[in-house]
Design brief:
The complex is a heterodimer of chains A (about 80) and B (about 400). Chain A has about 80 residues and is mainly alpha-helical. In chain A, about 40% of the residues lie in helices and about 0% in strands. Chain A is flat and about 55 Å long. Classes of the chains: A mainly alpha (about 80), B mainly beta (about 400).
Chain lengths: ~80, ~400
Amino acid sequence: MRRLRIVGVAAGLLLMGACSNFQPWVKPYERDRLADPIMSWDRDATSAAFMDHVYESREGSRGATGSAGGGCGCN
Amino acid sequence: MIRAARRSLPLAAFAALASLLLGRAANADVLPDNRADLFFSKYSGGGMDINTYTASARAKFSDQFAVDYSYLVDKVSGASVDVLSNASVIKDERKQNSVTFTFVHDKTTYALSYSNSKERDYISNTPSFTLSQDMFGDLTTVTLGFSRSRDEVGENDGTADNPNVIWLGHAESRSYTVGVSQILTRNLISGVTVEVITDDGYLANPYRSIRYLDPNSGKGYSLASQTYPDTRTSTSVEGRLKYYLPYRAAAAVTYRYFRDTWSIVGNTLEFDYTQPIYTRWILEGRFRYYQQGHASFYSDLFPYANYQNFEGRDKDLAASKNYTIGGKATYAWLPDGWKVFKRSTLSLDVSEIIFKYSDFTDIKDYNNTPAGGNYAPGTEPLYHFKATVVQVFLSAFF
């Protein structure tokens, strides 16, 4: 058990070292397309939150889409 | 041996997590530009008209600290079919104030928000906290979120113009979110979000009613108050992919799976396409499909009054499908800026949504059969309606 704990700590330290020297497979200078505004998940947060609220007030499902605002949508 | 190995795993996992969170990064996160938005939307469908007006602004006070504020007003008139079945018409207004403080330190973004929503018969207060961490050479962003809302639920027992609000109780909700955004290739980005929400308190909609067979009634049925469970826990899992096409356009697909302790299971699938035209226009198209099964305590028509402990006939709990087709055009009308503004855009977004219900009938016109007589209870046509959502907004970046 003690040996396994040492192995666990060693693996963690190894990961720490690996992460500090992590080489991303998509380099920063290759991310020009991903930085284009058309690749943003939600370019307009107000509009996205509004549509989430429209659906959440009329469907049984909710969540995992960002903020849907308050209110009950009772009417 | 296996038990010992299991005990060492959390230690190794903790060490790995610490290495990720504490690792110094070469480039710190950057706050987005200052921004101000004026937003108007109109929802029309199912007997309701809702106009929404929003003003929002984001201001950076340093490279590390920003504040967002938004003010929203909903003006509601008309009433949905299940409210009309209970013979009441709604005219209401909702106001919402939201503020978010964002702080960036190195690769970590902290956001603390507070939102207050107030209607004549419903008050909601929601504080929330979000933490985002970039890691693995900024290929991965992990987001953790928590929010807690406390709602006061009432019912207007008077009329639209002379309200008499009776406060029925309160509801509490807690939301836990974990999200991962991952760059896969130089053209492809992905994301997964899991959100668990727990509710406790008065969860029913006081304006909607159940109906049950009643031979003593002229229509053959009567209406009564809904009774919901006092608790609900739901889990949503959403996955999404977005791909940059070779001719500067983007295509995205999103899928969400939902289930809760009321036995509602929902599936959402959405496709989006974004196409810039010349330098000033961005056009977007979307198709969304949603389907859900009914809640365990839902019925369109109960056999008799107090048939079971929990009874609901809110159409949101019924088995249903809906389809959305939408389009958006964004025009850069100040692409090179003006005075303090770096740029400005004007957007128009139009969506058509078709709602179809599989076990919710339209009882509003119970005496309008094609032959001119009355429908027997339970034989009314299934309800369906179309809604149009128009959004117009002006955004200025500075």
